[in-house]
Amino acid sequence: MSSDTGTGLDRAPMFDLAYERIVIGAMMDNPAVIDMVATKVTAEDFYSHRHASVFTEICNAHADGQITEPHAMTARLLDAGTLGQLGGIDFLHQCYAEVPVAVQAGHYADRIAELAERRAWEAKGVQIVQAANQPAGRDLGALAEKLLTEVKPRGQSNDMVQLGALIQPAVADIKLRRHVPAGLPTGFADLDALLGGLRKKNLITVAAPTGAGKSIFLTDLARNLALRNSLVVAYFSLEMSNEEVFERILSAEAEIPAHLVRDGLVSEEKWAEASTVIGPMASAPLFMCDETDITVQQIKVRCQILQRRVGLDAVIVDYTQLVTPSRKFSSEQEGISDVSKSLKKMAGSLDVPVIAAAQMNKGPDLRADKYPQLTDLRGSGSIANDSNIVIFVHRPDYYDPESPRSGEADLVVRKARNAAKDAVTVAAQLHYSRFADMRAI
């Protein structure tokens, strides 16, 4: 490669230093182009670190309301003590002199962005090749998906949208909701009426004390979405094996007591009856993963693969406190916060609702009123902050076996953006590993 254009005899150019100098020169020549150029490229897009530094200084000077012509930039860099290492006044004048027409700076900026994207793809390709040459044991498919999705394709605009541009599609969507629920159905009519269903890009947290039924509630959601509505669901169970999840779904669908399924005591007669539900289960678009040591990034990669192959409508994670943080943290609270924020970002990136279970602390045990509060979420207040919706599964008979409300559960909505905060009562049919609408029993 030559030092200036990055061309070689056997490959496309990967950088163009002359174009980078022209853009810098145009920004010094005509401040009116600075904002336009800044919408097309960032400092990271420049191949030369020197060019990137000067670009940043020009943008900062412009933001400060200062003059950006060469003499003014020379003084600014001199005051910062970086003029010499960036090439001195001669370099700035060289950039200024190479500008053909300043108003064409957008064309040169587009080229810089294009070459930066090429370099990003090449770098990811090199990483994939290097991984392929390592000893076996790595999931190369997942790694390749992860690496390639880290490159943002050129042309994905981040431009701001004027309100008027939203009117036509938004009104059409609002009218459609008169006939179709805004979000995905939970399978609980009163809860759907309260929330408007499970909305795209939302993080929905389902919390309960250990053993109170949060995992059962999540399998209810999975059953309804995948079996009743043929929606594609990715279910990540970090606490139970895939086989245990299947057993719970079978118990709920076939109305076979869970302990009989668990212990292999189902009679031949019951198995014959169960065959009517096993058929639909076989074709349900419910995809499960019971890997225990998994990060949100790894969950996201598996979801992206599924989304490309068959589509994706919802993600269920059981549960937040068991997901591995992206790195080591000094406290459990910081780790949980990292996971919670990442789940929220994943919901937006995948454009689907993400439903995640969460454990509760011992707060209700210390109160006469056992009704759950947001402060009862274990480990981090960020779970409440990051969630669009927080639902607690509250069973009166969990705390008092003699409760007159034995066999009932309240789905307590403590946080709901764009929805009411209230509670709905459902039947707790835990012997069948399910909850059910009160009106359906």
From TrEMBL:
Reaction catalysed by this enzyme: ATP + H2O = ADP + phosphate + H(+)
Record EC number: 5.6.2.3
A GO molecular-function annotation: helicase activity
Keyword set, alphabetical order: ATP-binding, DNA replication, DNA-binding, Helicase, Hydrolase, Isomerase, Nucleotide-binding, Primosome
Coiled-coil features, chain-numbered ranges: none
Entry similarity comment: Belongs to the helicase family. DnaB subfamily.
Name of this chain's protein: DNA 5'-3' helicase
Native source species: Paractinoplanes deccanensis
Originating gene: dnaB_1
